[in-house]
């Protein structure tokens, strides 16, 4: 199982650094924007499109990180009442659903990225498809993390 755990550990650390850095930059950017707008009456126009990209990074990579940690939303009160075998089955279904979700996000966002890559984000001049590339990366991570959890269920079951 280490064939998947090591790359996922590395990916987890990279996502953590990127999401944390994005959050810090977003905070600084918002403070800068507020000071410029209300103190100097000179609102920068580039803050909003950058902030939107950062929010997408934080939300999507944060979701992937929570999947790896096993901290996503669940119906624990129902699952805890199940037998141990039922709990394993519920966890397996949960990870299969997460992997299906990740595949759907991947397909949809990849299609949108291809469709909008020629368009430009106003003010920044970056490709509009960049907004959709972020969820593509996050969906791959979600699928890999869910697959790792699913394999762990089978390894525990066999022992």
UniProtKB/TrEMBL annotation:
Q: Which residues cross the membrane?
A: 12-34, 46-67, 88-109, 129-155
Q: Which domain of life is it from?
A: Bacteria
Pfam families cross-referenced by the UniProt entry: DctQ
Keyword set, alphabetical order:
Cell inner membrane, Cell membrane, Membrane, Transmembrane, Transmembrane helix, Transport
**Predominant localisation class:** membrane
Indicate yes or no for the key word Transmembrane helix.
yes
Give an example GO cellular component term for this record. Answer: plasma membrane
**Membrane-topology annotation of the record:** Multi-pass membrane protein
Query: GO molecular function: any one?
Result: transmembrane transporter activity
Which intervals hold domain Tripartite ATP-independent periplasmic transporters DctQ component? 26-154
Which InterPro entries does the entry link to? DctQ (IPR055348), TRAP_DctQ (IPR007387)
Instruction: Give GO BP annotations, semicolon-separated.
Output: C4-dicarboxylate transport
Question: Where does the record place it?
Answer: Cell inner membrane
Provide the function of this protein: Part of the tripartite ATP-independent periplasmic (TRAP) transport system.
Q: Which family does it belong to?
A: Belongs to the TRAP transporter small permease family.
What is its quaternary makeup? The complex comprises the extracytoplasmic solute receptor protein and the two transmembrane proteins.
Read off the PANTHER family from this record.
2,3-DIKETO-L-GULONATE TRAP TRANSPORTER SMALL PERMEASE PROTEIN YIAM
* Name this polypeptide is given: TRAP transporter small permease protein
Q: Name the species this protein comes from.
A: Paraburkholderia ginsengisoli
Record lineage? Bacteria, Pseudomonadati, Pseudomonadota, Betaproteobacteria, Burkholderiales
